[in-house]
Amino acid sequence: MASRSALKMTSIPSMTFHNSSLEKEEEMNYDFYEQIKSLVESDDSSDDFTEDDEDVEESFLDISAEEPVLGKFPIDTKGTITVVLPSLEYICVICKQHMGKASELVAHFNIKHRDIPLVFKCAKCDKTNSNHRSIACHAPKCGGIKLTEESLPMVCECCQARFATLSGLSQHKRHAHPVTRNEERIKDGIKGTSQRGVHRSCWSLKEVEHKKTGAPMSDSLHFSSRPLETLSPPPNVTTGTSSILAQAAERLTNENSGTLEKPAMEAIKAWLNGEGQHDALVETATALMLCPMRLVKNKGKRSKPENDIIKPRILPTRSWMKKRAEKRGSFMKHQKLFFKNRSLLASLVLDGTERHECRIPNADVYRFYCEKWEKVLPFNGLGQFKSSGVANNEYFEPLISVEEVQTAIRAIKPTSAAGPDGLTRAAICAADPEGRTLTALFNAWMITGIIPKELKKNRTILIPKVMDDEKLKELGNWRPITIGSMILRLFSRIMTARLARACPLNPRQRGFIAASGCSENLKVLQDLMRHAKKLHRPLAVMFIDIAKAFDSVSHAHILWVLRHKKVDEHVVGIIQNAYDRCTTSFKSNGESTREISIRVGVKQGDPMSPLLFNLAMDPLICTLESHGVGYSIDTDHVTALAFADDLVLVSESWVGMAANLAILESFCGLSGLEVQARKCQGFMISPTKDSYTVNNCDPWTIKNKDVHMIQPDESTKYLGLKIGPWTGTIQPDLHCQLKTWISKIDEAPLKPTQKVELLNAYALPRLLYPADHSDCKQSTLRGLDQEIRKAVKGWLHLPASTCDGLLYARARDGGLAILKLEKTIPSVQVRRLQRIANSSDAITRNIVSSQGMEEEYRNLWVRAGGDSDAIPTFVLRDSVSKEPVYPRPCDWREHEFQRWCEKPVQGRGIVNFAHDRISNAWLRPWCGFKQCFFIAALQLRANIYPTRESLNRGRDGALRSCRKCSARLESLSHILGQCPAVQKARIARHNKISNILADEAARLGWSVYKEPRFISETGEMRKPDLVFAKDEEAVVIDVTVRFELSKNTLSDAASHKVSYYTPLGDQVKVLTKASKVTFFGFPVGARGKWPLENNEVLTSLGLTKPRTTSLAKMISRRTLLFSLDILRMFCGNYAVYEQS
Reverse transcriptase domain: from which residue to which, for each copy (predicted)? Predict the structure, then answer.
């Protein structure tokens, strides 16, 4: 056992202490330190210490009895003193002097004991170095003495990797070989199955075994545990909506209406009087009222003359000419798409495809969809499946208002495709800007229940589901999108909003509703898996695939559900009439097919289709929740997670999942929907003694076909993310995806600013959803941001030292507004979690709150830059409040701008451009600047233009003096404001700005005097740039261009000009014969800054506000371009400019 003196001189490896060489102070084990200190200071031997704490080993204390000891640090046989880092205190072993830092100890030895070598050693791995900084930086990251690979006892039989502990080997297999690890868990034995939830099961083992045989289950066997109420086909229900609409129609017809609204009023009167011609009158009224819109649509279009012959294009013959022509053609194609359809350009560049044209013959397409849409199968009702709740028909009683029509128009995108009639959103807004004509027309449709036949004609396009050319040869891999008339889609949007409020859905359906449905379903599924693994409970999950769900749902099925929910028969008739005699046609390869009647399915592309499909699926979801066997957390019970046709079933047992699948099969048999067993996937998590296994059971069956069981090393895609039974949500490789997109954008024939726009507006938003829902690490986001900055700086030819503020600040503040994922993703995650916690679904709120999500929310708030002392309340919703507002943790773009302003060189004068849309208007990539001027303007704005001062910044002894004159520093402010070599260019810049003001004043009727000469009281000659005279008023303006060095540079210049020329007021009155003289300074920044005080000058000349804004932008842009010309002249051949 070592002596007490040896113990005193030894440092404690478990403690780290703050000194000057360490970057941060780490936490000390104070209790352990006090114990050691008391033992060292006492007379007890180290034997007592070792006996009290058997876990402490001698090697841990780093005691060497063989070395002679002198004071604090050991001295070897060569006379070298070894200092162990990190250490509590530093004492010179020779003169007993105390030092607070290792650096002070080194300085002490250099002065007092220069001949004695000093070596520093790591307390964990015995690494030595004469430089104390090297060991101080190494110690916090040191993992101790590493064992050789051959000495590690645990060996992986799969890859022969070695590990020191069994736990390390187990974790390795869990991540690298999940299938092997799962098999080992199954062999180790399975924990007893939990009986929780058995009392809620409505399917017995006998029923499940009967189902396995493939024999059909009789009605008496179905729902035998808890019989459902037998429902007869629901009768037609009328609650008086028709009579209320009739009363409103009478009031409407008695009011004075415009000329365009009269046909609609006549149709309504015919319906009120019971005349049989109201159908024809509705058709006529629709044609007459839509005629102005069709005229607007055809305005400006010229038809080609019959004798117009298209000359064949002569292709080049030589190879180099062909390559050049192809290159030019590709460039022109990309440029045209950039200015007309950027989303299509993004698809072309990022996905490698512009638009997949269906190459399948039209005859095959027509035959396929005729068989699908025109073949009506018999529907006899849904039997014992029923929806919960009754419709509130009061939402259908009011007439359609102008506000509803305007809201519907605003909801449609300007680029939304037109229907077969060719009417676009722009044509509708131009012909009916207030929406009164459409309001009268829609009320006529709603009151009479008649939709014009002409508007029931549609056109259908095929959108590829996959990008594999081989798979696209099958029609099953194409999604039909049916596009109807824009007018009918507006009416459908209004009726959909009313129907959604009148018929609430089961809360387990989160598709196409006013909520973050994808986020809620993903979060609930993740929490269910986490809860089951944590509490060692079994969990069964099944991902259901319904074949062509939107195309195969029966119209009779939809109407049955509407009537069962007691929707007013008049409203049901309107929906039924919208699909009655509804037709569509396909167009591909320049030819259209014959019309196909849509007798089955809903129109994908119509606003009402998602709601109708959700209503059709509602009886299934309600029955699963009420009679299925789900998974329970506390008092909350979940059986299904639905997002439109994406259905996930969950249960707490294998038998329970089999019962849920039986309910699903029964519903599909009654409704005509078909489940694709080969595309359905599932997994079963079973608890073991201390862990869990995957799929330690037989596979489930659907229609006597085994369902694929997802293995531990496999995953399935659900709502855009990969979900696996072993790890839950699988992290996507965002870094590889981003590098691929950057490489494709870099190779595209686009201009530099267009590449930046494509990356920022179309590529980066694609990363937000997977990065948000997969909980990316902060280091991953930093790496992505680094790749983005590298690409942007490369495209714009910016030096690597360019500050981040230029990239991340808003365009109105002078930045490029690039997305910063490190700050954006945590901010998005904070608001997503808060939305989920305030969901309209109580079960979702309870499940996520029970899984500790509030703590996750608090951590993300701080990570996103929010104040830890001002974290808002997690749950904001109450039973009566409106939709809550979810705050952002911080304005990270404003923080980036403030950091830019604080830069001593690149941020000089940047504060002038804050919140200035006029001075920063040129920052749009399509502002009209040539690319070389745009890039140079960015360099000028950030003070990184390649002058001698900029190129040699930070280099000692480098040449920084002006190359044209004797100035000490060749800076931008010197060139643009002082250097005599380009004085003529600066005068030309000044005169061009003066001429712009003179021309504008002359256009408004002012008399213009350029540079009149006046004599001051001191005898000096003073020449203001411009004197304007009109009537009895005169305006004196002197233009100056200054480099924006500080916030007050331009305001001080304006004040100086006013005070300089004010004494000349009497002479100006004599010159202009005016009674009132106003003096203005007119400063403009050399980097394009437009002071708001200049607006007063333009207003005094009589310019309107829009003209003032446009002129201000023009002067700002031209001043910036004039400054760039001066810089080019300075760096080029100045003699050429003098000759010109």
Answer: 444-723
Helix, strand or coil, per DSSP, at residue 583:
strand
Tokens of 1055: 């004040």
**How far is residue 425's CA from residue 189's CA, in Å, rounded to a whole number?**
66
DSSP codes joined into one string, 881-930: --PPP---S--HHHHHHHHHHT-SSTTTTGGGGTT-TTTTGGGSTTSS--
Give the angle 793-798-804 at the CA atoms, nearest 5°.
65
- Tokens 């609409």 locate to 245
The DSSP 8-state label assigned to residue 509 in this structure reads B
**3-state SS of the chain: helix, strand, coil percent to 5?**
50, 10, 40
Cα 671 off chain centre by: 38
Cα angle 575, 576, 581 (rounded to 5 degrees) comes to 120
Task: Give the ranges where 468-595 is alpha helix by DSSP (H).
Answer: 486-502, 517-534, 549-552, 555-564, 569-579
How far is the C-alpha of 681 from the C-alpha of 705, rounded, in Å? 12
Q: Is 146 left (phi over 0), alpha (psi -120 to 50) or beta?
A: beta
pLDDT at 258: 58
State the pLDDT confidence band at 226, using cuts at 50, 70 and 90. very low
Range name among 20-24, 196-200, 942-946 with the lowest pLDDT average: 20-24
Distance between CA 409 and CA 427 in Å, rounded?
A: 12
For residue 701, how many other CB atoms are within 10 A of its CB?
A: 16
Tell me the C-alpha distance between 818 and 426, whole Å.
31
Reported as type and span, the H/E element at residue 1080 is strand 1076-1085
Model confidence pLDDT, tens digit, residues 235-272: 444 447 778 888 887 787 777 555 557 788 888 888 88
- Residues 6 or more apart in contact with residue 162 via CB below 8 angstroms: 149, 150, 152, 153, 154, 155, 156
Q: Taking a C-beta distance cutoff of 8 angstroms, is the pair 674, 668 a contact?
A: yes
Kindly report, residue by residue over 731-778, the tens digit of the pLDDT.
899 999 999 999 999 999 999 999 999 999 999 999 999 999 988 889
Tens digit of each residue's pLDDT (9 = 90 or more) over 526-572:
999 999 999 999 999 999 999 888 989 999 999 999 999 999 999 99
- Joined together, the tokens standing for residue 956 give 């000692």
* Two structure tokens written together for 163: 């590990």
Sorted by where each begins, the domain ranges of the chain are 75-141, 241-294, 325-351, 732-878+885-933, 950-1131
- How does residue 67 score in pLDDT terms, banded at 50, 70 and 90? very low
E strand intervals along 429-527: 457-464, 478-483
Q: What are the start-end ranges of the E strands in 681-732?
A: 681-687, 692-694, 701-702, 705-706, 708-709, 716-718, 721-724, 728-729
CA distances from 325 to 112, 317, 747 (A): 80, 11, 18
- Write out the two tokens for 775: 């909980």
Task: Output the pLDDT for position 331.
Answer: 92
Q: How many CB atoms lie within 10 A of CB 599?
A: 17
Measured CA to CA, the distance from residue 598 to residue 372 in angstroms comes to 9
What pLDDT sits at residue 198? 42
Task: Say yes or no: domain 75-141 is CATH 3.30.420.
Answer: no
Alpha carbon distance 825, 860 (integer Å):
10
The kind and range of the H/E element at 293 are helix 278-298
Collect all residues with Cβ–Cβ distance below 8 Å to 148 and sequence separation of at least 6. Answer: none
Length of the chain in residues, anyone? 1140
| 210, pLDDT greater than 60 | no
Name the H helices within 42-101: 46-52, 58-61
CA pair distance 615, 550, nearest whole angstrom: 12
Token pair of 1050, please?
């331009």
Comparing CA positions, the residue from 58, 55, 48 lying closest to residue 10 is 58
154-155 and 118-122 beta bridge pairing: unpaired
